[in-house]
Amino acid sequence: MIEIENIHKSFGDNHVLKGISTVFETGKTNLIIGQSGSGKTVFMKCLLGLFEPDEGQICYNGQYYSKLSTKERRNLRQEMGMVFQGSALFDSMTVEGNVMFPLDMFTNQSQSEKQDRVDFVLKRVNLVDAHKRYPAEISGGMQKRVAIARAIVMNPKYLFCDEPNSGLDPKTAILIDNLIQEITQEYDITTVINTHDMNSVMEIGEKIIFLKNGIKEWEGTNNEIFKTDNKAVTDFVYSSELFKKVRQMYMEERN
Amino acid sequence: MKYLEAIGKYFIMIWEVFKKPTKWRIMKTLILKEIDELIYGAMGIIIFISFFIGGVVTIQTALNLTNPLLPKSLIGFAARQSVILEFAPTFTSIIMAGKVGSYITSSIGTMRVTEQIDALEVMGVNSLNYLVFPKIIATMLYPFAVAISMFVGILGGWVAAVFGGFAPSGDFIQGLQMDFDPYHVTYAFIKSVVFAFVIATVPSYHGFYMTGGALEVGKASTTSFVWTSVVIIILNYVLTQLLLG
């Protein structure tokens, strides 16, 4: 569980995060949504420890990040997995090398143990025949799966995904969403996803927070987002005609 | 003020490079890879340029020694001094700043743009140690490249002198041996170690702290070459004053 208490972050005169508080629960897919420039990326980088908040606290399963020593912070980071928007795979390494990298860096396992673990996670993300290929030789969807495999190879307690299905076709995007949700439940991970994708919001948003101009404007679940009267949320989520109709149908069905 | 801030940031980066080292088993592989890329990979251009510059220095010296009273051995002497004192350590370093420095900036810069450095940081890896330390260690072998550059430069001078008809082989070799001071070679090696450190770290700084996209990677490479060259030229002056002055 990650508890966020009133965090603020500024860059010079630009006050990006203005007192955000929320709780991301374990075993759930928690989504951060909002327009470009609303502070989603800065918020996620604060959660990852890449940015230090100016004010406020972030608590990971009872450990306040600001009170941890440098060594404890590095240890905590080893409990985090991250799927970047562009996958961020190491170009010079094969798929297998990318997934094995955290094991090489942080464990003393034998080569066969590491190989078994890599085979297991690659199988888990449905990639069984790409071990020796380089990131440039595989599709965007496969790259995302490799990034997920690399993120979960160390059995993380926290999984962060920055727009995991951007640039993917709708079918692959749904597969990636489902994979993340399955992994979250299977391994009881606290997953936080930064997304623009409304399909993700509807499909896997067990907890959603909506940011606007650095403020938490709304929070709820994917069921509650249908019912909300918050204008900022409805303007953002139901900006397309299709989603407006979907919502209308849902409301009519309810009534 | 901006430059002072950059200098401060550079030294903080150097400090970070030596903190929290990566496992030796992994580091060893990275160092060998960097030796292959940065030293072995640059040998071709170093040998090629050294040979021809050694020849040009010899021809120009010969063409300027018009007084018949001056012995032909002075051509060999001048070629040796030019190559050992300046050409091999300094001129080669400027070439390396272009070739190796651009490679370092663009490779680290691309990792920054594609969030690979963020990925390392999130995993808890000291990205500066992982990326920059192997480059520093690899470039410490740069004096070997400079030694080869000295040999090839003088060989180029001998070929130009003998086959160009500027000096007989015996006179040229006598000039090479005339008043030889081994300290000059030591001076050249000291300079080359300092320049190697600059070649590894200044381009790394420009790559690591770059912002923007692919276009900025190109700009960062150019800026890094300019600043690496400037630092080398200034340090060349300072070291010459300290070691020979």
Provide an overview of this structure.
The complex is a heterodimer of chains A (about 260) and B (about 240). With about 260 residues, chain A is an alpha/beta fold. Helices cover about 40% and strands about 25% of the residues of chain A. The longest helix of chain B has about 40 residues, at about 75-115. Chains A and B meet through α2 and α3 of A and α5 of B.
Protein traits:
heterodimer, A: 255 residues, alpha/beta, six-stranded mixed sheet, four-stranded antiparallel sheet, 10 helices, 10 strands, 24% strand, globular, B: 245 residues, mainly alpha, elongated
Quick structural gist:
The complex is a heterodimer of chains A (255) and B (245). Chain A is α/β, with parallel strands linked by helices and 255 residues long.
Give start-end ranges of low-pLDDT stretches of chain A.
Answer: none
Spans of at least 5 consecutive residues with low confidence of chain B: none
Shape descriptor of chain B = elongated
**Annotation field: number of helices of chain A:** 10
Helix content of chain A: 40-55%
Our count of helices of chain B gives: 10
Task: Give helix % range of chain B.
Answer: over 70%
With strands numbered from the N-terminus, the spatial order across the biggest sheet of chain A is: 6-7-8-3-9-10
Give the overall shape of chain A.
Answer: globular
Assembly classification: heterodimer
The tally of beta strands of chain A, per DSSP, is 10
What is the helix/strand order of chain A?
Answer: EEEHEEHEHHHEHEHEEHHH
- CA radius of gyration of chain A is 19 Å
Average residue pLDDT of chain B: 93
Secondary-structure-based class of chain B equals: mainly alpha
Cα-to-Cα separation, first versus last residue of chain B: 32 Å
Biggest sheet features of chain A: 6 strands, mixed
Radius of gyration of chain B: 21 Å
